[in-house]
Amino acid sequence: MTGGQRQRKPSIDRSNTTSSKNSSKSNGRGGSGSDNNRNPTNDGHNNNGHNNSRHHQPRRDRSNSHSSHNGSINHSPHPHHHHHNHHPRKPQSKDKLWKGSLNVDVGDSVIVQMVGVDSHTGYARVDPSCHATPDALSSIPILKVIEVMVDEERRHVARTILEKGLHVETSDHYPPATGLLDLGAVWLLNETLYAAGENAHARRLRREDAMDTPEWKDMTLRVHYHPERFFVAHERDWGKYCRGLLLDGCTSAVVGGRKAHVPMTMLPDAKDGVIIYENNDVGLAVLNKPGGMPCYSTITNHAEDVITMYGAALKQRSGCNDQSKPYLSIPIRVETEMHGLVLAATNKAFCHYMTTQLESKAATPDNGNHHVGGVTKTYRCLVCIKHPNDIDRIENMVNRTIEHYVDVKSPTPKTFKRNKPMNSKNDWQQCHMKILSVGSQSKNFRAACVSSRFSDSNDFTLAHRLWGPNAEHPAEDVGAQFVMQVDVRLVNTTGHRAPHQIRGQLAALGVPIVGDEAYGGGVCEMRMHHHMWTRMAVQICRLEFRLPEWEDGEEGKRTLVSPTETENGEEDRNKCIFHLNTAWWSEYLVDYERHMLQGGIDH
């Protein structure tokens, strides 16, 4: 309930209810409405990767816009299986859609119908055929229907806990009605159009829509009770610069051979900032993205992503009103699990420039470096070593180009092979990776032992700091004896699947990334402030590109173009180099190294 008002507890009418347990399978509705897609490189597919929680979650939809937009719902066998279905649907009656519904009397003979209460996604409407007066029907706001659904869902969760003894994380995973609206986990669908086999025009709702009273004879709510949560988003200050820029050797931003300026008014306070560099003239920003949060919103969460968090900080700084919002896009995709340097476009001109670069120079090698749209990225990974001989084997691959073929249409984990299968109808894409260096950054040791069989508390501590404290033998659970840091760069690739290629190629070499559950690296759990999220030991640690330049065109229109090439020996005033010297696991390795050196043990 909201507003401090006491309301009569709804009574439950089960006379027209078969079994709510099966209602989600009989309603014949699923699919997803999606926001307006502002990502210029989006290929229309969902992100692949792990969920933020260990619980089963709906599949992510890369919904990219701040604003709501019409989408569609599609037929699926279960309401929380969301996928795009481009095949025409057959019309069906509304009665069939609501077969087996759970009915709740909310007063004045108004009946709220629900299906899918036993899943993570439910549907609800005010029954237009109930015996309530037209005034009573038209007075039921969206918030009231959501509250009834949330109340019934929590009863179902409580019964499940008591009957099966399941563990549920914090209550934040099951937000109240207003919390679901704040997260963007509620959608309004035109069921009349859907039943007719047409586009349902799904629209994401916000808190300001809470007291709206739609035409319930046509409209239905889709509520994601258990939305994906990305709590790590709240651990950073999205309007401040990264603290590492003030520390020597930690984080660097060099533009035109000079250290980039950090405004004194935007230094971090209690929380560390994410901004590495901003250029308002060109329209770009470089951010230090935390791992475990997406760049764009998902179908169940429109509040805890890079676009939303940084966009809100830009809006607050610029003083925009509620209706206008700063332009923001991320031209080069970065997976949810990855952390590190992310390039963002803060105006349409730079976004168009990067899109053009991606289309024309997506696979442009330069002395073995990886360029995506003129951008060179280096990745730092911590990998699992299952046998001591693998340390030498991987070290011998330094500065060598490693080739694999990936079946791009295979499910996660994708299939990677050293040789392209003959006579195969699958879409095998060639990918290359170069290992730049191995071992700790201090070069005092190559690999750290994480096995518990040597009875060394230092090894045991490192394993639990990496994978979390819950497992008794976390390293043994994934078959790892050591962990080793490697810096890699992709070569001759389009970049759209670059992060996935790193994960798959390292796993194909027998050294999966720590925390990459899909490819055999286990699960790294991070707990803070009563919340838990997972993270993967892969970081975009270096970003290099040249600033574009403005060029005057016809009718006074200015466009961004590639900068002119510099002469030999001339300083490149357009060259930008951004570097992160530490990752989330760096502190663990430094502590391990210190204990090893104090004990006189050299790995």
Question: What does this protein structure show overall?
Answer:
Helix content is 20%, strand content 24%. It has 603 residues and is α+β, with helices and mostly antiparallel strands. It has a 15-stranded mixed β-sheet that branches. A 7-stranded antiparallel β-sheet has the order 1-2-3-4-7-5-6. A hairpin with a 2-residue loop joins strand 9 (251-255) and strand 10 (258-259). Helix 10 (457-467) packs antiparallel against helix 13 (586-598). The longest helix is centred in the N-terminal third of the chain and has 23 residues, at 142-164. The protein starts with 10 loop residues before the first strand and ends in a 5-residue tail after the last helix. Residues 1-86 and 363-370 have low confidence and may be disordered.
How would you concisely characterize the structure shown here?
This protein is an alpha+beta fold and 603 residues long. The longest helix has 23 residues. The chain is built from 13 helices and 26 strands.
Layout of secondary structure:
Blueprint: E1 11-13, H1 20-26, H2 94-97, E2 102-105, E3 111-115, E4 121-126, H3 134-138, H4 142-164, H5 177-183, E5 186-190, H6 191-195, E6 203-204, E7 219-224, E8 237-241, E9 251-255, E10 258-259, E11 273-279, E12 284-289, H7 306-318, E13 339-345, H8 348-360, E14 371-372, E15 375-385, H9 389-395, E16 401-407, E17 416-417, E18 428-438, E19 447-449, H10 457-467, H11 474-477, E20 482-491, H12 498-508, E21 524-528, E22 531-535, E23 538-546, E24 549-552, E25 558-561, E26 575-580, H13 586-598
